Amino acid sequence: MEQAGGLIAPDDLRRSIDHWLTDGVITPEQAAVMREDVMQEDVTATADQMTESVTPATEPEPELAAPELAAPAHPEHRTSLLIEALGYLGGVIILTAFILVLSQFWEEFTAPIRLATIGAAFVLLLAAGFVVPQSLGGPGTRLRSVLWFGATIAWAGVVGFAGNEYLDLVDEQLVLLTAGVAIPVAAVLWLLHRQPLQHLALFASIVAVAGSGAAMLPEPSAIIAPDAKIGAMVWGVSVAWFLLAWGGIVKPRGLGFALGSIVAVFAAMTTMGGELESQSRPGAVLLLITLAALVIAAVLFRDFMLLVIAAVGSLQGMPIVMSVFFPGVLWAAFALLVIGAALIAAAIVIARSRRRERAVSHRNWSVGSQPAAITSAGLVLVGTAAAVVTTSLIA
Known about the structure:
Blueprint: H1 10-23, H2 28-54, H3 75-105, H4 111-131, H5 138-166, H6 171-192, H7 196-215, H8 228-246, H9 253-270, H10 277-301, H11 304-325, H12 329-355, H13 370-393
């Protein structure tokens, strides 16, 4: 392979494959197939170069043949994707029909039959994920991920129905029980199958536990907004998740960055829910710190995704922040102008650093050490929980 003509050098492609495998973007089986393809193309290119080197110089050059259209690459791959898509479509149709039929008789079922029905769905989805053949490769991996994601939802349904029907739990108590019991199942399935849907299920369960647990605390005093305790606790969990992804403990790393940063930004916005200016100021400060940290991380990590999240968060939250500290339309417009310029500057810095990445050896700040990630995530969680509990108990 040559770098000219839009192709990638084999060494660069091998490093990219290793990076994708480390981040969990591809499976080990997919990485092995890609490495084999790279090796075959590299051997073919080397053989062509050797043939050209032994060809006599006096031999006339053959006439250039008219360019032919390249044959479609990996037609069997496209066929497998089509089969997979048809399978998912058929599964959705069957599920829809099952729900329609079940809804006709649901009111006639007794509580034990309803609970058994939801439990049967959980068992079937879980077992189906286990029996998916490993030989299917990528399609099998994705199918197992979908089945086990559905199993996690079904398990939450079992716990939620039992809690409401037999324990008379509602609202925050029911959410706390449901999400809390769902966490072990989601964690085990994520450990067995570290795919994006399992990652999402585990993160959502933890966030639900944090938010519902904070909601059960006493109402805070006038220092902070009434709903700020929920937003602050969810913010702490999201930042801790971001840090764990930075240390490579939760994978895929990119998905951990995205989930942690998005939820942290919007959780910080909810802490500004007070009607009084004095109640909104702590939340406004938290949002400013979150957005600034996100922009710094985007520049250090050379990650445009984080910069986009920071930009969207700034557009949503900064006018409110400026109205808290500096009432008036002009101040809000000035704040947006400054933030827009800062984001453009950050984008330029990221683009330039990416160009120099191959020529100069840079430290990869997006990959942290596990001890540092665990320590920092623990400190964030403990500090946030202590602050939420303390402010909730202030008379």
